[in-house]
Amino acid sequence: MKKLSLIAAAVSAVLFVVAIPTKAAPLTPQQQDNLVKIQTILEQKPELIDGLLTSLNMYIDQENKTAVTLKKYHDWLYNNPDLAAFGTDNPKLTIINFTDFNCPYCKRLDPVLQRLTEENPEVRVVNIFVPLQQREVAGIDTNSAQYALNVWKNDPDGYMKVHDYLIRKNGRHDKSSLERVAQVTKTQMLLDASNTLKPTIDKSYQIFSELGLNGTPAMLIGDQILPGYLPYDQLKPIVEDALDKVADKTT
């Protein structure tokens, strides 16, 4: 009896997890078939049950924590003038992008996001700078994230030029590369670190951690969290689907 109860609990947990992305939509035939296969495997190998159930419960707990975190910080993420952004000022869909100017995959993702905003004028991308790879730069009292936010705050019209130069550099930024970008974009005065930027970057780290993320890039698109780099052909349909869902809600 205990074995059957554990199997039922494990399968129920699997069912719950499968249903999360579709907001309790009916299971597809493939999902139903997979659940039958899972139950068969568990009946044949009951030693897997406890570990699977623990893992699934941990997953569900993180999903619940993520939902609470997103609700708690929604306004800070989506309506915060202190966060750098590009795309339309009146979006139907906002993509939250946790990024780092020193991260190679973030550098690859950025032109994909810019292309999507150009092709979809209803989309806006908000960049949340999480400089995991370089909090300090030797010889200069700033880093790429602080510098970018300083430009965004004090010279918003010149921000994208600075942003693009910071993204293009191969490898990590150093004192020379930051000074070179500042010189080319005539933003030397904004290289000085500003104490007013620290709370924004600290808050970015906090939310990043509370969402259970551990690397950049990571995106929030609609009700999905997408960790890691996605190429254009994979990201485009996700964005289009999110736009369609927004349109459905307004009709």
Give a description of the structure.
The protein is of the alpha+beta class and about 250 residues long. The chain is built from ten helices and five strands. It has helices at about 1-20, 30-45, 50-70, 75-80, 105-120, 145-155, 160-170, 175-185, 200-210, 230-250; strands at about 85, 95-100, 125-130, 220, 225. Strand 4 (about 220) and strand 5 form a beta hairpin. Helix 1 packs antiparallel against helix 2 (about 30-45), helix 5 crosses helix 10 and helix 7 runs antiparallel to helix 8 (about 175-185). It starts with a helix and ends with a helix.
**Spans of at least 5 consecutive residues with low confidence:** 15-22
Pairing-aware structural class of the strands and helices? alpha+beta
Query: Percent of residues in helical segments?
Result: 55-70%
Estimate the global geometry from the Cα principal axes.
Answer: globular
String of helices and strands: HHHHEEHEHHHHEEH
Order of strands across the main sheet = 1-3-2-4-5
Task: Give the structure's gist in a few sentences.
The protein has 251 residues and is an alpha+beta fold.
Topology:
Layout: H1 2-19, H2 29-44, H3 49-72, H4 74-78, E1 85-87, E2 93-99, H5 104-119, E3 123-129, H6 144-154, H7 159-168, H8 175-185, H9 198-210, E4 218-221, E5 224-227, H10 232-250
Parallel strand pairs: 2-3
Antiparallel strand pairs: 1-3, 2-4, 4-5
